[in-house]
Write a structure and sequence with these properties.
Blueprint lengths: L2 E5 L8 E5 L5 E4 L4 E2 L2 H6 L5 H20 L3 H6 L6 H4 L24 H6 L13 H4 L5 H5 L20 H5 L19 H32 L1
Antiparallel strand pairs: 1-2, 2-3, 3-4
């Protein structure tokens, strides 16, 4: 047992308490602060600390054994989603609960209203609002070339990266239902503008020639 020695100094403004832990080491408490000697900072231990470490190790071992004894399909799903009862402080299964006792927004269950009605009026809804799950079908407008909803569309905007070899050869029997991309040849913008300029220049030259020919024919008449 630790013996407590109390000393009252002549100066009443400070009160010192000395707790004797060994014959040569003391913890001195000042009126407004605690300070520990370097020896105590590295060597002060309690008798119950080994028991606490043993309890923690046993709990971890038992928890791992419980997981290992589960079927493989349940092991893969074990504590992958947040426990709804734990959120409401109603779960009494503790560490053996198959669901996660930790708030992780990415592991929250999907919002029922968001999945069914594609909208949720609760601004503080704690459930997951995953747009990817709403994209069950391809967007018909995106397939045609343009979708006004852009990245906010609830349907799939599929980019076909692999080019269809049949289409490159000249004919694809699958047509628009082909799973590969049908390449569209697009000229460079600079070439397009240059070609447009050449065409306009040719038209002007043709009109000027016609005007000159008309002027030359007019005096002869």
């Amino acid at each position: 047992m630790y013996s407590i020695l109390i000393k009252k100094l002549i100066d009443d403004t400070w009160l010192h308490l000395e707790v004797k832990l060994t014959s040569s080491v003391y913890i001195s408490k000042n009126f407004d602060m605690w300070f520990f000697s370097p020896y105590l900072q590295h060597n002060l231990h309690f008798d119950f600390e080994p028991a606490i470490r043993e309890i923690d190790e046993n709990e971890e071992r038992c928890h791992q054994q419980y997981i290992d004894n589960l079927p493989k399909d349940e092991q893969e799903k074990f504590q992958k989603k947040v426990c709804l009862h734990w959120i409401r402080t109603l779960c009494n299964k503790g560490d053996h609960c198959k669901f996660l006792h930790e708030y992780d927004r990415d592991k929250m269950p999907k919002c029922f209203f968001w999945l069914k009605f594609h909208s949720c009026s609760n601004f503080d809804c704690m459930y997951r609002h995953d747009r990817v799950e709403l994209k069950d079908n391809k967007c018909p407008f995106y397939v045609r070339g343009f979708c006004k909803h852009g990245s906010g569309c609830r349907r799939k905007h599929v980019l076909k990266d692999s080019i269809c070899l049949n289409y490159l050869a000249g004919f694809c029997p699958d047509g628009p239902n082909c799973i590969f991309a049908h390449a569209k040849w697009v000229e460079d913008e600079s070439k397009i503008f240059a070609k447009m300029q050449q065409d306009s220049n040719k038209e002007k030259e043709g009109e000027e020639k016609k005007e000159k020919e008309g002027e030359e024919e007019a005096p002869n008449q």
